[in-house]
Amino acid sequence: MANAYYDNDTREKYKVFPERDVLNITVLTKMEGTANTFLFYHIANIH
After folding, report:
1. Which residues contact 17 (CB under 8 A, 6 or more apart)?
2. 17: exposed, middle or buried (C-beta count within 10 Å: 0-12, 13-18, 19+)?
3. What band does 8 get if pLDDT is binned at 50, 70 and 90?
4. Can you give the pLDDT at residue 35?
5. What is the mean pLDDT of residues 31-41?
6. What is the per-residue DSSP string for the chain?
7. How far is Cα of residue 4 from the mean position of the Cα atoms in its chain?
8. pLDDT greater at residue 18 or residue 36
9. Residue 24 sits in which domain range?
10. Where are the beta strands (DSSP E) in 2-46?
11. At a CB cut-off of 8 Å and minimum separation 6, what does 28 contact?
């Protein structure tokens, strides 16, 4: 049932994963998105 918590992009990125890593993958995915957003605004503010 863990797959129900994943959007399509996440499922494509992690087709196979142990149950114990579900939370870690979710957290890392969210952190990755936050970092990309921060970087985008940081670059935008420089110019």
Report:
1. 25
2. middle
3. low
4. 67
5. 68
6. -GGGG--HHHHHH-SS--GGGHHHHHHHHHHHHHHHHHHHHHHHHH-
7. 15
8. 36
9. 2-46
10. none
11. none
pTM (whole model) above 0.90: no
Residue type, 11: R
Are 13 and 32 a contacting pair, CB within 8 Å? no
* Banded model confidence at residue 29, pLDDT cuts 50, 70, 90: low
Q: Given the structure tokens 């992009």, which residue do they identify?
A: 9
Q: How many domains does one find in the chain?
A: 1
pLDDT of residue 1 exceeding 50: no
Cβ atoms of 23 and 31 closer than 8 Å: no
Distance CA 29, CA 41 (A): 19
